[in-house]
Design goal:
This protein has one domain: 3-Layer(aba) Sandwich (Rossmann fold). Helix 2 links the parallel strand 3 and strand 4. The chain is α/β, with parallel strands linked by helices and about 280 residues long. The relative contact order is 0.13. It has a 7-stranded parallel beta sheet, with helices on both faces. The chain has a two-stranded antiparallel sheet with strand order 1-2. Helix 2 packs across helix 9 and helix 5 runs parallel beside helix 7. It is about 40% helix and about 15% strand. It binds nicotinamide-adenine-dinucleotide. The site of nicotinamide-adenine-dinucleotide (NAD) has 27 residues, from helix 5.
Length: about 280
């Protein structure tokens, strides 16, 4: 096996090193379901899991987005499947689970990466924030994670094996700093942080209650991804970030593979923060 060194030169790995890497981080024989896998981060997580060896089912309420994410894997001859699934609908999750089992095998990895971001999401100050988007955000970001964990978790418990990775956010740990957002119109609303804090606590709860079933449940906390946002906002976000920039979505691939793989075998109920240092000061 060849890999790149720090100066981008090809270097050879000894067979023993290859085996060590494959044992620690490889996902050969695993089947991963990624809910929200058609999203900006989700599609990169799908690719990372597939590159590590998993067969990946891309689940998304937006079937076209799921198909596009699956296509990028298919182009590399990686086993994949795109399925329509609204994570707030238990029967759709159960149908997706059946399809995955029939076509890829029993799922051993679940990643929850969906989020609600439709009309009304960014509206107004907290004292005016309307109830409707508040409920929609909680429904998708928290109830949806709970339902997916339940449906897939039941199967993992029956198998005695599983790794669940729930995606939270820095705003599940700390408040957004309104000074960073200014008049950009994309200030993260109160429902978002509340839902993401809920995901962290749900993760801990399930980790503890499923500890004897071979099911590990961990949480990944990403920081903000650059997505051609308002330039003033980007500048302020970067200034506020110790590493001096926003994330690239592929920078979360390593963390999700780590949490899904043997390398994290002694972790459950943990919160892995990958935020460029945002929460360090
Ligand atoms: N993008 C960021 O800067 C950032 C930062 C921190 C945390 N996060 C979190 O990371 C995760 C992925 O973020 P993203 O930027 O890829 O989001 P995104 O909005 O690009 O993608 C979310 C995906 O979820 C899907 N979705 C929405 N409702 C759904 C439902 N009911 N059922 C199934 N799928 C549904 C959407 O169709 C979309 O494909 C989210 O949980 C988000 O909160 C993102």
């Amino acid at each position: 096996m060849q890999s790149l060194d720090t100066e981008n030169r090809l270097v050879d790995l000894l067979p023993e090193q290859q085996q060590w890497l494959a044992r620690q981080f490889g996902l050969q024989g695993q089947v991963a379901a990624v809910v929200g896998g058609g999203g900006r981060i989700g599609r990169h997580l799908c690719l990372g899991l597939a590159m590590a060896g998993a067969r990946v089912a891309v689940l998304d309420v937006d079937l076209e987005a799921a198909r596009q994410a699956a296509a990028q894997l298919g182009q590399r001859d990686l086993s994949t499947l795109a399925l329509p699934c609204d994570t707030t609908r238990q029967e759709q999750l159960e149908q997706a689970l059946e399809q995955i089992e029939a076509r890829l095998g029993p799922p051993t990895v679940l990643v929850n990466a969906a989020q609600f971001r439709s009309a009304g999401f960014y509206s107004s100050q907290p004292e005016q924030y309307p109830r409707r988007p508040w409920e929609q955000v909680l429904e998708v970001n928290l109830t949806g994670v709970f339902l997916a964990c339940q449906v897939f978790g039941r199967r993992m418990i029956a198998q005695g094996q599983g790794a669940i990775v729930n995606i939270s956010s820095t705003y599940g740990l700390v408040s957004p700093d309104p000074r960073v957002y200014g008049t950009s119109g994309v200030n993260s609303p109160p429902a978002y942080g509340a839902s993401k804090a809920g995901v962290i606590q749900l993760t801990r709860y399930l980790a503890v209650h499923w500890r004897e079933h071979g099911v590990r449940v961990n949480c990944l906390v990403p920081g903000g991804v650059y997505d051609r946002q308002d330039p003033q906002f980007v500048e302020q976000y970067q200034h506020r970030t110790p590493l001096g920039r926003m994330a690239r979505p592929e920078e979360y691939q390593g963390a999700v593979v780590f949490l899904a793989s043997e390398a994290s075998s002694y972790m459950t109920g943990a919160v892995l923060v990958v935020d460029g240092g945002w929460t360090a000061w």
